[in-house]
């Protein structure tokens, strides 16, 4: 299966290196990057065994397009993959909440949108609960302040997370509002909402906490089949907004497309 990577930032580069190291049934065919020379320094195969494409042409000769781009570039890459009937794997999951028409577009074109678990935990349990009745879903996210710097919500509300002496709750609302206000910080909340009761019923708290060194997410679900609470503490990647678990989660999702044995939904 031919994989195209749109973006080689902290996560995309990690995914690329893992694919190059070897995953049976998968090959990294092409990448889309802004700086080809920088990409070559990180991956000498770029421009040789790995083609360089525009992000919107990756789907021309790749079976799967993995999106690892800034939110502003999300839609055109998504459309280019979906309109060609490819598998589109978005890592900027929050953007799906702003572009829900892509789901119907995928149905019409025979495409699929596959969201990796990413930095979250327990999406299988949430999806299973959603086959019945979920009464409530709440997620509490705690991040080092640097991981929230520059978020649109903080700028719009004049909230500073610099030089905090203690934890500060910077957001309390639903996942849709949170994804809009923190588009690069809480993709996990968007994924959780899509697996469960939707973005308007999924409650979200976001804390800037100088005492934590890991991106921490606690999920509480109350359903007719189970009640459960899960916590994960992700080590930040080179990009403090993103956890180190995102790249291996993406590889696991890709591996599941070709593996003879797949455990979990």
| Low-confidence runs | none
Please count the helical segments: 10
N/C terminus separation: 20 Å
CATH class category name of the largest domain: Alpha Beta
Shape: globular
Could you give the order of the helices and strands?
EHEHEEHEHHEHEHEHHEEEH
Give the biggest sheet: 6 strands, parallel
The percent of residues in helical segments reads 25-40%
Instruction: Give the count of structural domains.
Output: 2
- Taken as a percent bin, the fraction of beta residues is 15-25%
Structural class: alpha/beta
Let me know the average pLDDT: 93
How many whole angstroms does the radius of gyration measure? Answer: 18 Å
Strand order across the largest sheet: 3-2-1-4-5-6
CATH superfamily of the largest domain: NAD(P)-binding Rossmann-like Domain
- How is the CATH topology of the largest domain named? Rossmann fold
Q: Give me the CATH architecture of the largest domain, please.
A: 3-Layer(aba) Sandwich
User: What's the total count of β strands?
Assistant: 11
Description:
This protein has 265 residues and is an alpha/beta fold. The chain has 2 domains: 2-118 and 246-255, Rossmann fold (3-Layer(aba) Sandwich), CATH 3.40.50.720; 123-234, Dihydrodipicolinate Reductase, domain 2 (2-Layer Sandwich), CATH 3.30.360.10. It has 10 helices and 11 strands. It has helices at residues 10-21, 36-42, 74-82, 94-98, 101-109, 123-130, 152-156, 175-181, 187-195, 246-255, and strands at residues 2-6, 27-32, 51-52, 64-67, 87-90, 112-113, 134-143, 168-174, 202-208, 215-223, 227-234. The strands form 2 sheets. The chain has a 6-stranded parallel sheet, with helices on both faces. Helix 3 (74-82) links the parallel strand 4 (64-67) and strand 5. The protein is globular, with a radius of gyration of 18 Å.
């Amino acid at each position: 299966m031919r994989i195209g990577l749109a973006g080689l930032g902290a996560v995309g580069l990690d995914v690329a290196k893992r694919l190059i190291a070897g995953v049976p049934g998968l090959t990294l065919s092409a990448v889309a990057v802004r700086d080809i020379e920088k990409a070559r320094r990180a991956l000498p195969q770029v421009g040789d065994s790995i083609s360089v494409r525009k992000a919107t042409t990756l789907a021309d000769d790749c079976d799967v397009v993995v999106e690892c781009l800034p939110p502003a570039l999300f839609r055109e890459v998504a459309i280019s993959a979906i309109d060609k009937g490819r598998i589109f794997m978005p890592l900027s999951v929050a953007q799906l909440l702003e572009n829900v028409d892509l789901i119907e577009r995928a149905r019409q074109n025979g495409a699929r949108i596959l969201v990796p678990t990413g930095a979250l935990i327990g999406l299988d349990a949430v999806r299973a609960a959603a086959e019945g009745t979920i009464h409530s879903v709440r997620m509490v996210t705690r991040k080092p302040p640097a991981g929230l710097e520059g978020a649109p919500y903080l700028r719009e509300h004049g909230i500073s997370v610099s030089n905090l002496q203690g934890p500060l709750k910077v957001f309390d609302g639903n996942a849709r509002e949170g994804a809009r206000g923190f588009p690069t910080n809480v993709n996990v909340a968007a994924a959780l909402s899509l697996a469960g009761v939707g973005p308007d019923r999924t409650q979200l708290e976001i804390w800037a906490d100088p005492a934590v060194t890991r991106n921490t997410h606690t999920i509480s679900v109350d359903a007719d089949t189970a009640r459960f609470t899960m916590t994960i503490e992700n080590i930040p990647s080179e990009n403090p907004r993103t956890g180190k678990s995102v790249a291996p989660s993406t590889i696991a999702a890709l591996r599941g497309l070709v593996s003879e044995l797949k455990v979990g939904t």
